[in-house]
Amino acid sequence: MIVLEQVTKRYDGGHEALRGVSLHIEKGEMVFITGHSGAGKSTLLRLITRIDVATNGQVRVNGQMLNRMRKGQIPFYRREIGMVFQNHQLLMDRTVFENVAMPLRVAGCTTQDIQRRVRAALDKVGLLKREKYYPMMLSGGEQQRVGIARAVVNKPTILLADEPTGNLDPLLSRDVMNLFAEFNRVGTTVVIASHDLGLIARMPYRVITLREGQLVKSSALESVRHGA
Ligand code: ADP
Ligand code: ADP
Q1: Atom from ligand 1 closest to the CA of residue 210
Q2: pLDDT in tens, 67-77
Q3: How far is CA 200 from CA 69, 79, 150, 177, 208, in A?
Q4: pTM of structure
Q5: Contacts of 170 (CB under 8 A, 6+ apart)
Q6: Are the CB atoms for 195 and 161 separated by under 8 Å?
Q7: What structural domains does the chain harbor?
Q8: ipTM for this model
Q9: Which one of 74, 156, 180, 221 has the fewest beta carbons within 10 angstroms of its own beta carbon?
């Protein structure tokens, strides 16, 4: 479902953020992308969302060759993907309901459809009672859950997250990861970039490690898991 073949991404100025990366992420899988700051995690996610384009190699998502995708197709392609950010990027002057409704309004859904879907998404993240609140009135963990509701409201086949627990304490971080696991359990493919190794090691998912833009074969995490 997500396939990278010998992908290199070189930014203007010549820096190679990714070098010869090949990987497959299956439909319905949940994986972590880890590695130090600057390893290329965000670049990898930006290639999958088609914000960036590979310099060399192929990126294929849901059977579509992203390198060859025409500009006009990109907005439709992005509806297949939900994106969660570290700082959640909520609109502070809109209610929780309106923040979550945003992707549906962009997609031109009917008012009735929006009501039903936003409530379903808020219910899934446990925030149905907060729909009339403004983000400022919520805790950091709740704000991140609003960001997750917004990412899944379109029922994307793929959910991507870039350091989704970066601003949260360990307890809230675990809650947020468990929420991703729940969406994965009902069939969504989930890809999470995170350097929270302690948290990742306790979860039973594949870990892809990047180091200076390259895939690391056997992850250092295996030794963390096995207590070495
Ligand atoms: P990570 O998410 O693992 O911290 P990034 O993918 O953000 O890593 O960055 C990988 C490398 O690419 C870093 O060295 C970073 O400085 C560089 N980089 C990221 N974005 C750009 C850009 N727009 N232009 C130039 N270099 C970039
Ligand atoms: P539909 O009428 O499209 O089948 P449902 O009534 O089954 O919709 O579900 C409504 C809502 O479920 C979606 O609009 C969305 O908010 C939420 N949802 C989001 N992501 C998922 C997911 N991965 N699996 C199940 N439900 C999801």
Answers
A1: 3
A2: 999 999 999 99
A3: 34, 28, 24, 9, 11
A4: 0.86
A5: 198, 199
A6: no
A7: 28-39+75-223 (3.40.50.300)
A8: 0.66
A9: 74
